[in-house]
Sequence to fold (333 residues):
Amino acid sequence: RAVADGVAACTPTAHRQRLTKVSVIGVGNVGMAIAQTILTRDLADEIALVDALPDKLRGEMLDLQHAAAFLPRTRLVSDTDMAVTKGSDLAIVTAGARQIPGETRLNLLQRNVSLFRKIIPALAEHSPEALLLIVSNPVDILTYVAWKLSGFPASRVIGSGTNLDSSRFRFLLAEHLDVNAQDVQAYMVGEHGDSSVAVWSSVSVAGMPALKTLQQSHSSFNEDALEGIRKAVVDSAYEVISLKGYTSWAIGYSVANLVATLLRDQRRIHPVSVLATGFHGIADDHEVFLSLPARLGRGGVLGVAEMELTEEEAKRLRRSAKTLWENCQLLGL
Ligand code: 6V0
Fold:
């Protein structure tokens, strides 16, 4: 009783701080990896989970709630009704049909667009000031779809894009060089997936341009070897899917990393899917989302870094942009 009185006495009731609320739509492998990483990194005061399957949803929420004694205090709520997301600062969309072994991301498109027609307008209605972070595949096209369906400014609609591809790229380079991946700066840009572009000219280790060193120290670092590494990055998603059926941990960490930058206004530069019209020769009338290094903060996309690309890299980027744009046109949004 005395303890309870003491606790009650020091509970401030009047001036409650504004809480940070994050919603995760879709509590599959990816949504839950993201939610648990956000929890362990203490990035939100409240997490709202939404899924179409009520039992699975409640089960996932309870399972996380039962870890409360070991985690920073975070309120967890869940519902199949999108109203539970009301007042979100950030909504992360992972709902979708999962890529099945061998299926290209583009094949998923039509299935996921009809799903987005249910999810996005409801999210926008309940949280008109939120940032939207799209993870479902094909992520670049679905980010465009979310932008159109939400009516939000492009600066508040972001796709996780090649943030994950870039981390796979950094990991593979770090393994080659036997250094820590955090000391490797390297960007994959363009489409998340098969046509992503490895920006070799941007690769640096501890701030030192690394491509020349790589080519001098490893005589095998010719064009083919570089393309081999890029392909290994692209194939790594397919490899994980064929081995365990889905990917989850790396995308969980990669998205939580974006959440930290956005909600804490870190102004870090991440390769994420943004409205890329006009960049690197992408036609001015082509509304298309693909990944470019973008400066992110509490307002969403604060700017896009004009990185130097070789003519070949820029050509690849424009080719991806054209394919993505053509696909977006088919949707009639
Ligand atoms: P999953 O485990 O099948 O989870 C999807 C979840 O969405 C399920 O729990 C469904 O019940 C739920 N869902 C379906 N319809 C609705 C709806 N209308 N409202 C709410 N929830 C719904 O798939 P997983 O979690 O493995 O993958 C989710 C998505 O992320 C897929 O589109 C993947 O392709 C994509 N990924 C994107 C990555 C990226 O880098 N952008 C990386 C990995 C996966």
